[in-house]
Amino acid sequence: MSRYEEFLDGAIDLHCHIDLEFSPHVFRKREPEWEWLPKAEALGMRGVVLKSHWWPTVYAVPYLKQLYRGSVEVWPSIALNPVVGGVELWAVESAAAFGAKMVFLPTWSARNDLQGTGFHLRVAEAFETFRPERIQGVSFLDEDGGLTATGRELLDYCQRHDLTLATGHVSAQESLAFAQAARDLGYRRLVFSHPLSGSVHAPLAAAKRAAELGAWVELCWNAIMPGRMSPVAAVEWIREVGADHVVASTDYFRAPTPNPPELLRFLLGTLYDNALSVEEIRAIAVVNPARALGLPY
Fold first, then answer.
1. Could you tell me the sign of the dihedral formed by the alpha carbons of 224, 228, 230, 236, in that order?
2. Which residues on neighbouring strands pair with residue 77, listed in sequence order?
3. Residue 29: CA atoms inside 13 Å, Cβ hemisphere, count?
4. What is the pLDDT of residues 47-105, one digit of tens each?
5. Which residue, 112, 195, 204, 289, has fewest beta-carbon neighbours within 10 Å?
6. Long-range contact pairs involving 278-281 (C-beta distance under 8 Å, separation at least 24)
7. 137/85 Cα distance (integer angstroms)
8. Is the pTM of this model over 0.85?
9. Cα–Cα distance between 292 and 213 in angstroms, integer?
10. What is the pLDDT of residues 212-259, one digit of tens each?
11. Domains and CATH numbers, the chain
């Protein structure tokens, strides 16, 4: 086994989209989970959080575990879009009852996503009757630029029920409001979702500030895919934010890409080839994701 495979020993992918996410035909992935999970196990991965923009993955994971009985942990999640009830505590509670480990703030229904070239445009490709202009986008900023009461309720609930909260597609300003409120609460399980993505477009200063406030800041493979940030710049970004606060994930979604373990191997190996140290890679792939989920490492 080469060093590149060793990078995955104990690794956790916090952001991996499920294969059957929208329909049997739309946005299907390269392989179903029961085919690639044994490959993740062979590479020594510790676990993966399965995400969906549409249905909570809590309903799929119990059945998936009948098809895959290996050592890789599969944690379900919920994204608080209208199809699951939106930003409601009962939606979070029901997902937690089925074992959800992670809660994602709205993605395609975030006001920030709807106001730009966000993922809502992809959803419109999937369903003929989907009308983004009819969606009342969700924002978590009050009139003073602070976090709304709804946002504080979500943070408090996640803290009390052992859940990790990720910021989804909300704006950088909203993510920082969550980070400040999380710090005030002593909540250490907030993930600033893919700040470099086209849905968020967060400046480096925002990512650094979120890390200073104690949030975990996510770097996805999508950030360094062809046509995006250069790997050299990505390594500089990690060090500017602080490798002790960055979590690496695949945000596995696109059918042309390799399966999640190979994609994570590619991400970590590319960063290593561009001067990220072995210790820094272990931090962003193994230690920090475990801490973000409240797990021992």
1. negative
2. 102
3. 23
4. 999 999 999 999 999 999 999 999 999 999 999 999 999 999 999 999 999 999 999 99
5. 204
6. 278/3, 278/7, 280/238, 280/239, 280/243, 281/7, 281/248
7. 14
8. yes
9. 14
10. 999 999 999 999 998 899 999 999 999 999 999 999 999 999 989 999
11. 3-292 (3.20.20.140)
Q: Are 74 and 64 in contact (CB under 8 A)?
A: yes
Token pair listed for 207: 């990512």
Give the DSSP letter string of the chain: --HHHHTTTT-EEEEEE-SSSS-SSTT--SS-HHHHHHHHHHTT--EEEEE-SSS-GGGTHHHHHHH--SSSEEE-EEE--GGGTSS-HHHHHHHHHTT--EEEPPSTTBHHHHTTT-THHHHHHH-TT--GGGS--B--B-TTSSB-HHHHHHHHHHHHTT-EEE-TT--HHHHHHHHHHHHHHT---EEE--TTSTTT---HHHHHHHHHTT-EEEEEGGGGSTTS--HHHHHHHHHHH-GGGEEEE--B--TTSPPHHHHHHHHHHHHHHTT--HHHHHIIIIIHHHHHTT---
Residue type, 297: Y
Total count of residues recorded for the chain: 297
Q: List C-alpha distances in Å: 191 to 45, 103, 214, 247.
A: 20, 10, 9, 8
How far is the C-alpha of 292 from the C-alpha of 289, rounded, in Å? 5
> What is the number of other CB atoms lying within 10 angstroms of the CB of residue 270?
16
Instruction: Give, in order, the Cα–Cα distances in Å from 225 to each of 192, 216, 257, 267, 271.
Output: 20, 21, 10, 9, 12
